[in-house]
Predict the 3D structure of the following.
Amino acid sequence: MSKHNNRARVATRRFFGLTIAFVALFFGALSSPVSASGATQVGGTITGSDCDAIASDYAFRIDGSLEGCVYGTITSSRSHPSGTYQEVADEIFIGTYNGEPGTFAMTEFYTEKRVDGVLVFARCKHPIVTGSGTGVFEGVSGRLDFKDDVVAGTSEYKGHLSF
């Protein structure tokens, strides 16, 4: 066998090896819940309150990537003549992620709009308070966004966590 054929064979193996590695990394990245920035995407549903462990202004259960309860204490609120209502609240999530327990604090920024007393939309942003995580959430940062589907009467959350 000549040197040229041996070099060609090695080059072909390297090419196919690199191609297989690239394809594996590409499809692995597509199936992973972690984005390129290192943030883990989370999401699920918001249900009625079967949460009563802590005195608070409100409480509700979330299911999905996160399982547990959110408790909130309203720190400010404002109603506008247009029918828009806004509030800010201090919140704590007590629950699990991947079956591991922990807690973290959030600040809620809530907005809703009503026309003739009928809810038209409701949404809120919940940035995680830096340094507030315990247990599985120690060192966590990120944000959860909640949105109500006023027609269907359902609510969901989506967001990202960075550890």
